[in-house]
Amino acid sequence: MNHILIKKRSIFEYQKTERYFVQIAEGFEELAVKELEALGARNIKPGFRGIHFSADRATLYGINYNARLVTRVLAPLVSFECLNRDDLYRAGSGIDWPAFFSVRNTFGIFANVSGNINIKHSKFAALCLKDAVADFFRKK
Question: In the predicted model, is pLDDT for residue 77 greater than 50?
Answer without folding.
Answer: yes
